[in-house]
Automatic annotation (TrEMBL):
Keywords: DNA-binding, Nucleus, Transcription, Transcription regulation. This is TF-B3 domain-containing protein. It comes from Flemingia macrophylla. SUPFAM superfamilies: DNA-binding pseudobarrel domain. GO terms for molecular function: DNA binding. Transmembrane segments: none annotated. InterPro entries: DNA-bd_pseudobarrel_sf.
Amino acid sequence: MDLFRHISTFDFPFINQPSTQHRNAKFKRKLSLNNATAHRPTTANNTFKIQYAGFIKADFELTRSQAYGEKLTLPYQLRLFLRHRSWTTLTLAGLKAIVTVGLMQKTLDVRIGYGWRSFCSENELQEGDNIFISFPNDNFAEVEIID
């Protein structure tokens, strides 16, 4: 097959064959697109960090609506983690109280629903607090305030 290709391009120079440089550039571009990671802003100041080291951990700053609202919309990477679980409730352990909250799941959105406001008030969470969430076990999260 290579011999035929070589003969045909040699005998008919007007046939436009893609050069190896063009093919290599196309391959490199495809590789770079496949290896690219999508970065989405998760909070106003992008303080969200997530790690996979035995269990999942995340920290972010609470806004006014998150600290005093009925529900908590989670950062993007944490939503991805929770979306693949079939949990309907989640137990949050704070410094002062442990509360079971409901998880509201739609196609791409996961929120902490009922029980979030009582968890915030019992653990005295306020606007501007940086909270650290870790999931050491299934369906159980530890929530801490960090400086």
